[in-house]
Amino acid sequence: QVQLVESGGGLVQAGGSLRLSCAASGSIFRINAMGWYRQALGKERELVAASTTPGSTNYADSVKGRFTISRDNAKSTVYLQMNSLKPEETAVYYCKVDSQDGMWRRSSVWGQGTQVTVSS
Length: 120
Fold this sequence. Notes:
Elements: E1 3-7, E2 10-13, E3 18-25, E4 30-39, E5 46-52, E6 56-59, E7 67-72, E8 77-82, E9 91-100, E10 106-110, E11 114-119
């Protein structure tokens, strides 16, 4: 019922920037949390940044000071601004939304993932 559409991935040189977007739609009454995760080849999926309702954010230590998560509540959209990208941050980036519908039923949905490649 809940669908996520991710965009913004691509190829960028080391030190460059990208902004990822994730728009949620469907049976959503309240969004409890939106976040970004990434999974590099041969590695576990890890939390990059998360935003909860009411406003609270947390980041992986490795991205603090370089990445910024933000939300547009009216559009049910979360963004991830990534600056000073490093080659080791090449990964598939996934959006995740935790929400509740009008019947107070909880949902946790992952986006399809978007590839971010940082060249050296």
